[in-house]
Amino acid sequence: MLADYRVCIDACVLANYSVSDLLLRLAERTRIYTPVLSNMILDEVRRTHVEKLDWGEEMANSWQMAIRKAFPETIVEGFEPLLACITNDEKDRHVVAAALVGKAQLIVTFNLKDFATKHLEQWGIEAQHPQDYLITLFEMKPELVISILHNAATKHHQTAQQRLAKLAVAIPRFAEHVAEQMGWNLKDPS
Question: pTM for the complete prediction?
């Protein structure tokens, strides 16, 4: 069953609204995978939203409430004792620990350098860029990914091609792959 595949999503991915919107929509009702989150990850997202991306408090709180309401069962706790034996970049050890407690086989992150294979292989975990993971999901379930893109686009008063063009800023390989498969033009997405 696809939903049994557990994926820890790093704060840097969750803080990118367009990318996290697509990823979390694929996990929400469709359950193509199950996200693994922690309060530390979500707190880091909130700080990024407010301090670096200039989201207002109300908007940041609304996003947090929506995530916590949609995925309450995926927020893991009690991983702090593992931090001492994890060897990747110190500021990201909590992500690996959350992945371990949440039984995630994969960490999706823009920040691959802080999740080197040599630090993860002993735990049976891999790290992957969000565009590579999204390409995998598209290859597995292209109709589902396109349907989710259409739904997200409608919410933002866009076409699916326009939504994909917006995603191309952060995840260009994914956008180009989907556009090629669908015969879409990202340069003129109208």
Answer: 0.94
